[in-house]
Amino acid sequence: MAGKTSASPRPRSGGEGSPATPRARTAVGKSSTGSAKSAAGKPAAAKAATTKAGSKPRTTTARTPARATAAKGASGRTAQSAGARSSNRAAATRPGRAVAPAPSRPSVPSRIGRGLGRGIGAVWRLLAKGVGSMVRTVGRSAVAARDLDAAHRRDGLALGLVALAVICAIGSWFHAAGPVGHVIDLSVATLFGAPGVILPALLLAGAVVLMRTQGDREHRTRRILGGLFLTLSVTGTFEVVHSASLHGAADSAQARRSAGGAAGWLLGRPLDAGVTAAPAVVLLVLLGIFGLLLLTGTAMRDVPAAIRDALGRIQGERREPDDDQAYDSYDDPYGTGDEFVDGDLADDYRVGGSVALDENVDLAATTRLRRPSKRRQAADAEHTAAILPAFEPVTAPLPAAGPVLPTDDAQPTEVLPARLRPRVIKPAVEETPAPASVAEPTQLTLDTAIDGTYQLPPTSILKLGAPPKLQTAANNEVIERISRVLAEFKIDAAVTGFTRGPTVTRYEVEVGPGVKVEAITRLTRNIAYAVASEHVRLLAPIPGKSAVGIEVPNIDREMVRLGDVLAAPESRKDQHPLVIGLGKDVEGGFVTANLAKTPHLLVAGATGSGKSSFVNSMLVSLLQRASPAEVRMVLIDPKMVELTPYEGIPHLITPIITNPKKAAAALAWLVEEMEQRYTDMLAHGVRHVDDFNKKVRSGQITAPPGSERVYRPYPYILGIIDELADLMMTAPRDVEDAIVRITQKARAAGIHLVLATQRPSVDVVTGLIKTNVPSRLAFATSSLTDSRVILDQPGAEKLSGMGDGLYLPMGVRNAIRIQGAYVSDEEIAEVVAFAKTQAEPEYAENVTVPKPDPSKNVDPDIGGDLDELIEAINLVVTSQLGSTSMLQRKLRVGFAKAGRLMDLMETRGIVGPSEGSKAREVLVKTDELDSILMTLTGGTEGVPDEI
Ligand SMILES: Nc1ncnc2c1ncn2[C@@H]1O[C@H](COP(=O)(O)OP(=O)(O)OP(=O)(O)O)[C@@H](O)[C@H]1O
Questions:
Q1: pLDDT of residue 163 exceeding 60
Q2: Which residues of 851-881 are buried (b: 16+ CB within 10 A; e: fewer)?
Q3: 782 lines ligand 1 (CB under 6 A)
Q4: Residue of 557, 561, 609 best suited for mutating to test ligand 1, as the one with most atoms within 8 Å of CB
């Protein structure tokens, strides 16, 4: 684990200079008892023995277990037995001293002997002290060296490798490095045989990798194993081939140096002897392939995609977002159901930790949306500038509203910085297809016309943070303080390690045998007091470990930048467009979330907790990774300020919604879109929108003959509500209904919701909403109750704010503590500006227009006739003619129905009573029509378009 550090605290906590450890105190108690017992048989001497043993021996016994603790490390049993042993020793000597007769005056030689003994003892103590202090100094320097910047440590190592490579090369290739070079040459040849000649090149390559990458402890073992297997394979093959060509094994040391060396001999020889040369070579080649896979972290199934990818990169080709192959290798995770069945799968969400989401989803093979290399981007930008003079700088004053973006008919008046220029400048919006027929189901207006030419923003926009620290002086200080508390309360427990995250460090405390874990949890307040932080959180135990976790905020906290999270190899490997960067966990692993799998997320936290920062990170992640053809969004921002920077991004289905009533209408629209998608999927026998899209792309699904519809892949839709409370205050029933309907079924239709609130009370996050929104992200809450509302467990009230969060993905029992990723306003502005240069938003119609709900507030006497009644009122009022036969004719209804509609109008004061064969009097004017219809439909008519 990246941040996992095996602490040296135990020696420190129990060492000299620190207060006596609990174990030491336990040992002191035993010592006294032991003395008393030993003396029991000799009452006369007992008192003297106890008194004499009072001072000096106590110090000794107090120290002895402490040293035992330092030497043995973790086990309480070890410490105790050491304590017991020393007590026994003390007990054994004290009675002896106590009952000894008063010594007669010693003889001269014995006095000399004793003096000599004292002198030697003094010298010995002095020596021991000197050596001890030297060891401590070296130890302190080692710890200080660990505080060195990781990048510097890696650079130092890399330069060391370069030096070794140079000496090796001069020694092996030119035989000219003097005696040292000769020894190195001989050693390399002895170890690796003939293949050893490439060692200098490998060392250089290693140095370059060290200098260009960040440390990755997680994969170190895999890589070392891979390298080992590869070495054994190559040298073994040399050994086998060499001995086959000589018709016998290379037996002399000289001959072995020309073959596979000691390494080759180790595996090649037994294989050759056991299965003969040819099969041995096959086995060794297979081992080599395995080694290569391990070294590169590639699974066999990913090899074709990796080769395609590499070839594509060599040829400089870029797959277009709408490429038919996009997602071809993406197995639908939804149809088969999720894997998240156990709380212990929390690790699946840590990408820095090696597991990147669901192993079943072969997203790595998906090669879509890869960005061209920086060199290529630069070349393209130059090319673009050359062929499009309109993109050259102009001296016109900048418009106040920011850059005017290049479109077909608008000339740019401002030039974006070179690094932000799009690679290809094409018409922002492609020609839209013919509108769908009104009579048949439409795909609403979410056609995916924005496609091929869309370029994702360059990753260079997002800044990278400083490399993480593994241990600092602050950590050592906290260990001291925790140890002190444990000692003061006489708890037989010790800090045995810790893992430092960006915001908090989790200190691991192991308790001695027979000590209740509650003994530590009861001390939460005392520990909080000792470390001077009110945000101490205890995990008893740490999931999967026999240790209690004490999470203490770092006073030297580190910022996690979104750029780092998205640049993590595992995040890049997962090409799903709905993957967002969340942050880092306590162990320093990067955490991402796939919104398609959450599948709906509730985010809550008090003001200032980092909720808005999360929403920004989420949106920027999406803009960085997804084109509008893949992901469209409905942004609802009743607070009117939070999401404003994103106004005008091409991913929007409708302008950012700030009016709660319109927000309710937009949610209803999402429900309709969902139903529409279900209808399409049902008609073609597919269970998930991914399958539908795949079939549309491959041409397996086309619109029925004669239809005016054109099937296009459905983009994912993300509905983001930044302040659910405001919506729930305005239209609780509508909003809750819509959210529940969407969250219950929209997952398979590719529609997902993210609901954020700073007021996680039960009237905002209702039971129904909670049941249907399975994934939760809690930032610091103001109360335990709020924490329970969001997470169904305490913990969020102990968070320290500023992005410190608890993530509880669907199906996971234990929340993962994360430090949310941060993205600055400048980065947001640049990413948004770039996205806007690529395309203009294509807004769908009527998203925010409230639809009349026939079942809502309709008088019982109208029943199912509401639509016809509305039409009838329209006819009668606009023509000012209360004629039943006119209704019969125009509405194509029978006499009875027309008469009933007329009676309904009479009871509502729209027309007067029947006057025989004459037309009825119309009692309302045309300009009152809207308000009448509004009353009739229960208030859903007549909402103004703009707020
Ligand atoms: N992930 C983070 N990393 C570093 N600092 C952060 C992070 N998230 C938030 N902060 C800091 O905390 C401050 C408040 O964060 P933010 O505005 O996101 O809180 P909020 O919960 O949305 O509050 P409000 O609801 O009042 O807007 C920010 O100005 C920023 O300085």
A1: yes
A2: ebeeeeebeeebeebbebbbebbebbbeeee
A3: no
A4: 609
Verify whether ligand 1 is closer than 6 Å to residue 694 (CB atom): no
Nearest CA to ligand 1 atom 16: 610
- 811 among annotated binding-site residues: no
CA 355, 359, 361, 365 torsion: positive or negative? positive
Known binding residue 596? Answer is no
- CATH top-level class of 863-936: mainly alpha
For 484-504, write each residue's pLDDT tens digit.
Answer: 999 999 999 999 999 888 888
Superfamily (CATH H level) for 575-838: P-loop containing nucleotide triphosphate hydrolases (3.40.50.300)
| 677 CA → ligand 1 middle, Å | 37
Specify the residue with its C-alpha closest to ligand 1, atom 2.
803
The pLDDT, as a whole number, for residue 835 is: 93
Q: How does pLDDT run across 288-301, given as a tens digit for each residue? A: 999 888 887 777 77
Q: Please answer whether residues 564 and 216 qualify as being in contact, where contact means their C-beta atoms are separated by less than 8 angstroms.
A: no
Residue ranges per structural domain of the chain: 575-838, 863-936
Complex ipTM:
0.96
483 lines ligand 1 (CB under 6 A): no
771 labelled as ligand-binding? no
DSSP H/E element including 635: strand 631-636
What are the distances in angstroms from CA 148 to CA 152, 260, 467, 561? 7, 40, 11, 21
CA 213–ligand 1 middle distance (angstroms): 30
Q: In this structure, which long-range contacts are made by residues 430-439, counting pairs with CB atoms below 8 Å and at least 24 apart in sequence?
A: 432/842, 433/710, 434/708, 434/710, 435/708, 436/708, 436/709, 436/710, 437/707, 437/708, 437/709
Q: What is the pLDDT of residue 133?
A: 66
> Token pair of 433, please?
């297809």
